[in-house]
Design a protein that fits this description.
The protein is an alpha/beta fold. It has two domains: 178 residues, Rossmann fold; 84 residues, Methionyl-tRNA Fmet Formyltransferase, Chain A, domain 2, CATH 3.10.25. It contains nine helices and eleven strands. The strands form two sheets. Strands 3-2-1-4-5-6-7 form a seven-stranded mixed beta sheet. The chain has a four-stranded antiparallel beta sheet with strand order 8-9-11-10. Strand 10 and strand 11 form a beta hairpin. Helix 1 runs parallel beside helix 3, helix 1 packs parallel to helix 7 and helix 6 runs antiparallel to helix 8. It starts with 8 loop residues before the first strand and ends with a strand. The relative contact order is 0.11.
């Protein structure tokens, strides 16, 4: 394998599983390539696997939460540098992107040019896509617009929740990074343009599918898809979805698809009056909703 490179240093920015896997891999290859390595955490993570990796391996670690401070630090780079942005929401300023000695690559959790921006796993489930994937791409001044380095695809199953899809995408991201790392370092990637429309939809962090509301008169399959699309387990990325039951606004605390015959047993026990609602789904199944009144 060719380990020649002109990159003098590599900086990893991000948080979470993908970032940790990338950081460890880049550290493991450090001796082969001879670059300096550093890590920057821009968004504080309560259980920072990256800080642990840095501590165990002697990797310089910095936590820079201020955007202007981070931009100023990166703007001072003089060595030829590869910046690896993984699960990172810092928008690199054009002054940095245009520096001839700096190359930036980014992981995006969708198949660009589709679903650029934030919370892509949510939107692909909500929109009823059957397939999605990940993209590593070069960073340009435009958000998620750079040429594609590598992509990997996966299926979206009919019961898949956002956190389950996210986990699968993280695994794909790690695989794809390792497969393309040598070409990135050798600067011989056969990158391809995205070919997106200039008016393509950009998904923002503040956007919530269906504005966080649904009606019980809607199709149960659509309600189920909405709930799955915002379900990140213990991570409260979105507020609880809301609807109106018996004239009162409620928040959905939990939901579950159960066999229709089990729902019949539960309803006969009077649980419908204790904050539960049952909606018929397909194939003899029922969507069980647990709710609490908020108004």
């Amino acid at each position: 394998m060719n380990t020649d490179t002109t990159f003098q240093q590599v900086i990893v920015i991000g948080y979470g599983k993908v970032t940790g896997e990338v950081l460890q891999y880049v550290y493991d290859r450090k001796a082969e390539y001879g670059y300096d390595l550093a890590f920057i955490e821009h968004e504080v993570h309560p259980f920072s696997i990256t800080e642990k990796i840095c501590s165990e391996n002697g990797i310089p670690f910095e936590r820079i939460t201020d955007k202007k401070e981070l931009a100023a630090k990166l703007d001072k780079l003089t060595a030829k540098t590869l910046i690896i942005s993984a699960s990172n929401n810092f928008l690199f300023p054009s002054s940095l992107v245009d520096k001839p000695n700096v190359t930036i690559i980014n992981f995006h959790n969708a198949l660009l040019p589709d679903y650029p921006g934030r919370n892509a796993p949510t939107w692909v489930i909500y929109m009823g896509e059957k397939e999605t994937g990940i993209t590593w791409h070069y960073v340009t001044a435009g958000v998620d617009e750079g040429n594609i380095i590598v992509q990997k695809r996966c299926e979206i199953t009919e019961d898949m929740k956002a956190y389950e899809l996210t986990e699968q995408l993280m695994n794909l991201a790690g695989e794809a990074f390792k497969e393309s790392f040598a070409d990135i370092m050798a600067e011989c990637v056969e990158a391809r343009e995205q070919g997106f429309a200039k008016d393509r939809r950009m998904y923002r962090s503040y956007e919530v599918p269906a504005d966080g509301l649904f009606e019980l008169t809607g199709k149960p399959e659509d309600i189920y898809r909405l709930l799955r699309s915002v379900d990140y387990g213990k991570n409260d990325i979105f507020p609880p979805m809301r609807t109106v039951i018996d004239g009162r606004e409620v928040e959905i605390l939990r939901y579950r698809k159960i066999p229709a015959d089990k729902a019949g047993i539960e309803q006969s026990g009077g649980q419908e009056e204790k904050g539960f609602r049952y909606l018929p789904l397909r194939e003899n199944t029922v969507l069980k909703l647990k709710y609490v009144c908020v108004k």
